[in-house]
Automatic annotation (TrEMBL):
It comes from the Bacteria. Pfam families: SNO. Pathway: Cofactor biosynthesis; pyridoxal 5'-phosphate biosynthesis. In the presence of PdxS, forms a dodecamer of heterodimers. Only shows activity in the heterodimer. It catalyses: aldehydo-D-ribose 5-phosphate + D-glyceraldehyde 3-phosphate + L-glutamine = pyridoxal 5'-phosphate + L-glutamate + phosphate + 3 H2O + H(+); L-glutamine + H2O = L-glutamate + NH4(+). PANTHER family: PYRIDOXAL 5'-PHOSPHATE SYNTHASE SUBUNIT SNO (PTHR31559), PYRIDOXAL 5'-PHOSPHATE SYNTHASE SUBUNIT SNO1-RELATED (PTHR31559:SF0). L-glutamine binds at residues 46-48, 105, 133-134. Catalyzes the hydrolysis of glutamine to glutamate and ammonia as part of the biosynthesis of pyridoxal 5'-phosphate. The resulting ammonia molecule is channeled to the active site of PdxS. It comes from Calditerricola satsumensis. Belongs to the glutaminase PdxT/SNO family. PROSITE patterns: GATASE_COBBQ, GATASE_TYPE_1, PDXT_SNO_1, PDXT_SNO_2. InterPro entries: Class_I_gatase-like, PdxT/SNO, PdxT/SNO_CS. The active site is at 78 (nucleophile), 169 (charge relay system), 171 (charge relay system). This is Pyridoxal 5'-phosphate synthase subunit PdxT.
Length: 190
């Protein structure tokens, strides 16, 4: 399996470490030409405006849309989730526009910039340590989107077919189960 982690900005090394812990080899990818050979792609957390604009500047957005159109799994965390979304509340600019979700950025307010909590994640774990850092949440999902986890009443993990996204950062824990779930999606799509 050829797994790539988009390495424009953000928590790249952490995802590579977790994918390796879950039994796969993963490589950082920076250029549009590297995308089409992948069986799966992770888009890390960081700053969505930075990642999204760099993707457009280097035509990586088109390459990722083609990868998605071939059914290859893509997993976005935090800023990666925002980059995947079709709709971003309060702004007209979107990036990949692949997932039928509406996201709200920096949605937990200033008092709760960063926090951790244990959450059930459907198909993944009864309890998963969820680390939120200036995190978005998902306000609305289309009918093809499965909600995998909620924190209080807010949706924080979703799957739409071959697309997976979490508002929290599984790559910052020692628990590889979300990454193992993603690798299973990659195996099933092969
Ligand atoms: N940890 C993160 O990825 C934060 C996301 C960031 N707040 C954004 O809107 O892009």
């Amino acid at each position: 399996m050829n797994i790539g982690v988009l390495a424009l900005q953000g928590a790249v090394a952490e995802h590579i470490r977790m994918l390796e812990k879950a039994g796969a080899r993963a490589i950082p990818v920076k250029r549009a030409e590297e995308i089409s050979a992948l069986d799966g792609l992770v888009i890390p957390g960081g700053e969505s405006t930075t990642i999204g604009r760099l993707m457009k500047r280097y035509a990586i957005d088109e390459a990722v849309r083609e990868l998605s159109a071939r059914g290859k799994p893509i997993f976005g965390t935090c800023a990666g989730l925002i980059v995947l979304a079709k709709r971003i509340a309060g702004q007209d600019e979107t990036y990949l526009g692949l997932m039928d979700i509406t996201v709200e950025r920096n949605a937990f307010g200033r008092q709760r910039e960063s926090f951790e909590t244990d959450l059930p994640v459907a198909g993944v774990a009864d309890r998963f340590r969820a680390i939120f850092i200036r995190a978005p949440y998902i306000r609305e999902v289309g009918e093809d989107v499965d909600v995998l986890s909620k924190f209080q009443d807010k949706i924080v993990a979703v799957r739409q077919g071959h697309l997976l996204a979490t508002a929290f950062h599984p790559e910052l824990t020692d628990d590889e189960r979300v990454h193992a779930y993603f690798l299973q999606m990659v195996k099933e799509s092969a």
